[in-house]
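Ops channel
N.P.: pipeline sanity check, posting one input/output pair.
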């Protein structure tokens, strides 16, 4: 079958539908860190249909096509890649969308697809004579290993970018500095605490949850941090915290009612940067971090009261802060898919 100058079997041509879909999910993951689960359902159904179609074609071809070229790689794909994706999700190594993407790939690309673009056979490494002994390797595993290699290269690229700008720091491999004004629309994790830079600071989605819960903007908090450190300024009726997404569609009451419900001397009660009033009395629960985490339904991405307090202290004072962009894994997965379709396995292709 030939479409737009590309020759391949019917199943392999239909598998190319995955490329624009994964491109879209990678873009969505960069922009919002949210990918709807419904996007994977059509691809899963398509993969199942193509799996049956491929099985029938292999059975009809006879010889070793059924066992060696279809059954073995398909069994490995479903029996190895699927458990790997599930286990990494279970232990927190992958997000839900990342795991679902790998599950879809395991069904959609169990065997090595073959395409002819004029006189060029793709994937280049997989169709060479040197690659023939690896035919039983599932193609989904090739995509996964490519994605891992791309993921490893990203910190190096980030370090080069920081070094070129003269930003030499221990966290230069995982983050970069941004103005505080960009924080409300940025994804990732704050890499700073009041005592210095850290590789594990406040999750920016958790920060947005907190600000929405209080009905505050980061600019308002920075304009009067002494006031808002005092839990007496917490709203009597907090707003829904949402899930912290930048694009969350939720209306919040300005200041969460805090300005109306706060005692007149609330600002005086938080005069010092430390959780202590001007008279020396200890202020319980500075910033209302404990109250926030106790009130919300669920977890704020593993955020602890201390982590939230430290992040708020940094953001209340500093003009520029280091954050980790936390590049979503769907980006390396998409790049790994494209490389796999055009070239094949980066690791084995290089070694062979």
């Amino acid at each position: 079958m030939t479409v737009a100058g590309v020759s391949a079997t019917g199943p392999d041509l239909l598998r190319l539908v995955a490329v624009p879909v994964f491109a879209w999910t990678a873009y969505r993951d960069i922009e919002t860190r949210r990918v709807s689960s419904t996007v994977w359902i059509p691809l899963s159904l398509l993969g199942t249909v193509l799996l049956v179609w491929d099985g029938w074609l292999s059975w009809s071809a006879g010889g070793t096509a059924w066992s060696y070229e279809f059954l073995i790689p398909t069994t490995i794909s479903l029996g190895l890649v699927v458990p790997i994706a599930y286990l990494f999700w279970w232990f927190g190594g992958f997000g839900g969308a990342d795991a679902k993407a790998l599950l879809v790939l395991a069904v959609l690309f169990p065997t090595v697809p073959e395409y002819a673009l004029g006189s060029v056979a793709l994937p280049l490494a997989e169709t060479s004579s040197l690659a023939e002994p690896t035919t039983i390797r599932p193609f989904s595993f090739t995509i996964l290993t490519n994605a891992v290699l791309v993921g490893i290269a990203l910190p190096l690229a980030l370090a080069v970018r920081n070094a070129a700008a003269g930003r030499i720091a221990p966290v230069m491999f995982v983050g970069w500095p941004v103005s505080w004004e960009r924080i409300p629309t940025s994804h990732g994790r704050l890499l700073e605490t009041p005592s210095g830079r850290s590789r594990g600071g406040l999750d920016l989605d958790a920060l947005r949850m907190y600000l929405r819960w209080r009905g505050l903007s980061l600019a308002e908090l920075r304009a009067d941090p002494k006031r808002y450190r005092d839990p007496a300024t917490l709203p009597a009726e907090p707003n829904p915290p949402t899930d912290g997404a930048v694009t969350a569609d939720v209306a919040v009451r300005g200041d969460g009612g805090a300005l109306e419900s706060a005692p007149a001397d609330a600002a005086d009660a938080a005069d010092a940067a430390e959780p202590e009033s001007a008279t020396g009395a200890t202020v319980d629960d500075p910033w209302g971090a404990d109250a926030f985490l106790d009130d919300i339904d669920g977890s704020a991405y593993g955020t602890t009261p201390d982590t939230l307090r430290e992040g708020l202290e940094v953001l209340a004072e500093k003009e520029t802060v280091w954050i980790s962009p936390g590049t979503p894994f769907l980006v390396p997965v998409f790049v790994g898919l494209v490389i796999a379709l055009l070239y094949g396995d980066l690791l084995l292709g290089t070694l062979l």
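N.P.: looks fine end to end. Residues 129-134, 256-281 have pLDDT under 50 and may be disordered.
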